[in-house]
Write a structure and sequence with these properties.
The protein is an alpha+beta fold. It is built from seven helices and ten strands.
Length: 216
């Protein structure tokens, strides 16, 4: 798949192929915009690529799962779970980050990247979370496409998500980051409105691509 002079595979599978370097290559090849829908995020090389894109003055928009920003519970060491350093960096460094949850207690579990979607462009989607566990430990799959229908569909879906998403509450994030600094500090209950608990999202956009007929 060609993209601004770069060549990317139409598909890739972990553990046969490292996926993080492919995403870095794609982001570094973008010339206009980067749009990311993320469930989780803790990959340093992709964070560095996003910083380079920001330095190049590209439009960067991100939608991330709410539960990975306002974290609850404890990690494997028994300490209060915190958002990753990369998620904190996106917010603190002024990236355009909005947060989204699923209906009721649901999650925003998408993971895809749209690059230069305004002009031909490229889209990558699949099972790959932007996380070290996906890159090092899991079987994962992704697809890269410069098909106009794929790009239009994922762009419409991304814009739909941005319309439902909310800005980061910095006071609430600070509460999350401060947990565990005192010996008797406990996880404070998450402030959530009744409307958020009973959230009902409008239907997502439908695909514009022609249907596929497979064996009738």
């Amino acid at each position: 798949v060609g993209f601004n002079g770069a060549v990317l595979p139409s598909f890739a599978f972990r553990p046969d192929t490292a996926i993080e370097p492919l995403i870095v290559k794609a982001v570094d090849s973008a010339q206009k915009s980067v749009r990311l829908a993320l469930y989780e995020f803790n990959l340093d090389d992709i964070m560095a690529a996003l910083r380079r894109a920001k330095e190049r003055k590209l439009k960067i928009e991100i939608v991330i799962d709410r539960s990975h920003v306002y974290t609850t519970g404890k990690d494997s060491t028994g300490r209060p779970r915190k958002p990753s350093q990369e998620i904190q960096a996106l917010i603190k460094e002024g990236f355009d980050v909005l947060i989204l949850k699923g209906e009721k207690s649901g999650i925003m579990h998408n993971k895809y990247v749209l690059l230069d979607a305004e002009d031909k462009g490229l889209v990558m989607w699949g099972s790959y979370n932007f996380a070290d566990t996906a890159e090092r430990n899991h079987y994962e799959n992704v697809m890269f496409s410069n098909d106009a229908f794929d790009i239009a569909d994922y762009l419409a879906y991304f814009e739909y998500k941005r319309r439902q998403a909310l800005p980061v509450d910095y006071d609430k994030l600070e509460e999350v980051l401060m947990r565990g600094l005192e010996p008797d500090d406990e996880v404070s209950p998450e402030r959530m409105s009744h409307d958020e608990r009973d959230s009902k999202l409008p239907p997502p956009p439908e695909s514009t691509a022609p249907p596929i007929n497979l064996n009738g």
